[in-house]
Amino acid sequence: MNKPKRETKQELLERIGLLTEALQRERADAENGRRRAALDREQASAAARTTVVTDLLPLLDNLERAFGSVPAQLEADNWVKGVLYIRQQLQTYLQALDLIPVPAAGQQFDPATMEAVETVTDKSQPSGLVAAEIVKGYLYQGQILRPAQVKVVKND
Amino acid sequence: MGKILGIDLGTTNSAMAVMTAGKAEVIANAEGTRTTPSVVAVKSARENKQEERLVGTIARRQAVTNPKDTIYEVKRLIGRKFEDEQVKKDVDIMPYEIVKSGQGVKVAMGGKQYSPEEVSAMILSKLKTDAEAYLGEKITEAVITVPAYFDDSQRQATKDAGKIAGLEVKRIINEPTAAALAYGLEKSKQADEKIAVYDLGGGTFDISVLELGDGVFEVKSTNGDTHLGGADFDRVVVNHLLDVFKKEQGVDLTKDKAALQRLRDEAEKAKIELSSATSVDINLPFLTANDAGPLHFEHKLTRAKFEDLVADLVDRTAGPCRQALKDAGFKAADIDAVILVGGMTRMPAVRQKVAEIFGKEPLQGVNPDEVVAIGAAIQGGVLAGDVGDVLLLDVTPLSLGIETLGGVKTNLIDRNSTIPTSKSEIFSTAADNQPGVDIVVLQGEREMAADNKKLGVFQLSGIAPAPRGMPQIEVSFNIDANGILNVSAKDKATGKEQSITISDSGNLSKEDIEKAQKEAEANAEEDKQKRELSDARNQLDAAVYQAQSLKKEDSYAKLEEASSKTLEEAIGEAEEQLKQEDASASDLEAAAKKLSEASVAAMTSLAEQAKQDGEAAEETDSDEKAEPAAKKAGKSKAKGKDAPVEGEIVDEK
């Protein structure tokens, strides 16, 4: 006779305990998952905006570079001034989006908002000071979007 | 008992994942990125005496200013003796100080000495903290991965690092084993499955050959190159760009650190983009300046050129692979599955090389940067009992549906749905006064009913006489956790219900499932055409039905002769098309269009006449224009059944 073995009451109770715990765990997982999904949805639209702003930064950098080297004979040129106004317009717009440049030049180096790409010796300055900013960093809605790339004073 | 964190403690980057609701989920760190640089630094205390410890991205950002106190690639040192060849090499290369401590080594940071275990613990500790913040619960247990070639002392040291970080390390597993787990290969039915894991990371290349026996992976051989990785590919591209710029502008940028940094960033970006694009435009305005003014860099880098540049690097992985196969005592043809790990394996030329070496396409689907962490999480899940037998969540391997008008399969439950699950949908009849419908339950991926597996048939009879499309028949599919499928059909008007239970819907071998999927793929185009033809036929049939109903209206007699003639002709043509068994979809569609236009014209003219007659004819008009309530035309298999038979339950199995 190949009668299936009947579980004892003890075994059944144990199984109920196991299953109850497993179910509770699963329910909790699902509940937590739902909560996180809701949060993720909120963050997803913010993340999409962040992507757009991040992709815009190289353009902004290049515009800054262009205005960083306007030939002297063109500085008073009206056409150049017009383009300068366009840059101003863009800056105003980005500020309204809460995109704020990281203050870097002359500040104490802070790895939370800056990335050191080079060190320079300058006895007239204390070590750890930002000697120059190579690429602007940005804070977007209070969060660091891109660290500033900087040269840092280091006197040994 | 809480969750067990799966940790890929890498040489350059680390990643973590955890099981959530039966699935491994990668956890982002506090900075929001899914991998964390394996870098630790101590910011030397100045004014406020207290030293500050930095881990991850922030530590990496300050490495240049603080090279002596920034520890990276400590994994190369963990568990090793000071006398080891590898350590001797690192003492010369690394900017930080490596000292002898007993038999082992220590590294100096912020004026103190730390063991590699302690430094690794700082990385693990950050991962633990960030995971706790994300999950909102305490993490006390972990599974940590190590390279397959790690010896006992390196494994023990990694375990100790976990302990220092406040983690009970439930298990140390091999990185290639974790990758195999992430692909579910431990479930393979085949005995002695042989797996090659090709891991081309940021700085190291590893190849491992595994053999699966009794659900346990055995490492048969390992090989690799400890100094070959993505960074080398970047360097080659940067050098190429420097050459191009020098040739075009006559300016050497190697001394211009700012320009070099921009080139480096751009080179890495280009490398990544070339995995999906066949060419990238590198555009760096105002890169530098000379006496003549600003200099720009514009260059198109094609994938072909890139592949040419890095061909030597890709080729360098072939030797270790062949050696590993040889050491394992296998031929390339013996390997059953190849897995890719590491970001560089996204590069098409690397995949091609792998396919060439092993004569087999590598598996795809899991992010190669995360595959090891995911496998570690799965191992953690097994240890925690999440993946145990008690509540193993299964999926339906193939789609389940019923046959509908024109021999088409309509899915109710899609393939890979997690069970238990249920789904219902409303269907209707295909003919006026149809007394019953046959419910044919189908399993498979093909568009036409006949090409799928018939699981069972039953009949719902006693439907009250009604025009076609009017009765509402609710068909419900319900699969329980054991894969037992129950299908029921209910006439909403009469409340009559019939059902069938099929117990072996999930009982398919891996081969059966793969065969079904392959067949569906192979026949996809043909099936689509058949389906379109069937849809066109159904559409035309519906148009004829509508036009015939219009003709039955009382007001139809008042229709001008020209209009009624056009309509008659269109109906005639349509019926002719329907009779022709080889009518094409476009012919059927054209006939349906013509008939619909004729019907609309007839209805419009009738409505105008009614208005002129001053009759309140709105009711008939709107009735005529009303679409059948049910969106889906129902079953065609009524075949004019004479007398409604008692619904019979058929279980073909």
Coarse structural class of chain A: alpha+beta
The radius of gyration over CA of chain B amounts to 35 Å
- Order of adjacent strands in the largest pleated sheet of chain A: 1-4-5
How much of the residues of chain A is beta strand, in percent? 15-25%
Tell the overall outline of chain B.
Answer: elongated
Largest sheet of chain A: 3 strands, antiparallel
Instruction: Pick out the low-confidence regions of chain B.
Output: 388-392, 617-653
Helix/strand class of chain B: alpha+beta
Radius of gyration of chain A: 29 Å
Mean pLDDT of chain B: 85
Low-confidence stretches of chain A: none
Helix content, binned percent of chain A: 40-55%
> What kind of oligomer do you see?
heterodimer
> End-to-end distance of chain A, in Å?
89 Å
For the termini of chain B, the CA-CA separation is 44 Å
H and E string of chain A: HHEEEEEE
Largest interface: A-B, 32 and 26 residues
Structural description of this entry:
The complex is a heterodimer of chains A (156) and B (653). With 156 residues, chain A is an alpha+beta fold. Chain A has 2 helices and 6 strands; from the N terminus they run H-H-E-E-E-E-E-E. In chain A, the strands form 2 sheets. A 3-stranded antiparallel beta sheet of chain A has the order 1-4-5. Chain A starts with 8 loop residues before the first helix and ends with a strand. With 653 residues, chain B is α+β, with helices and mostly antiparallel strands. Chain B is built from 16 helices and 28 strands. At the A-B interface, helix 1 and strand 2 of A face helix 1, helix 7 and strand 16 of B.
What order do the helices and strands come in, and which of them pair?
The complex is a heterodimer of chains A (156) and B (653).
Chain A: H1 9-68, H2 78-96, E1 99-101, E2 114-120, E3 130-135, E4 138-140, E5 143-146, E6 148-153
Parallel strand pairs in A: 2-6
Antiparallel strand pairs in A: 1-4, 3-6, 4-5
Chain B: E1 4-8, E2 13-20, E3 23-26, E4 36-37, E5 39-43, E6 52-55, H1 57-61, E7 70-72, H2 85-93, E8 98-101, E9 104-109, E10 112-114, H3 116-135, E11 141-146, H4 152-164, E12 168-174, H5 175-182, E13 193-200, E14 205-213, E15 216-225, H6 230-249, H7 257-273, E16 279-290, E17 293-302, H8 303-315, H9 318-328, E18 337-341, H10 348-358, H11 371-384, E19 394-395, E20 400-404, E21 408-413, E22 418-419, E23 421-427, E24 437-443, E25 453-460, E26 473-479, E27 485-491, E28 497-502, H12 510-522, H13 524-552, H14 561-579, H15 585-612, H16 618-625
Helix pairs in contact in B: 3-4, 5-11, 6-7, 6-8, 13-14, 13-15, 14-15, 15-16
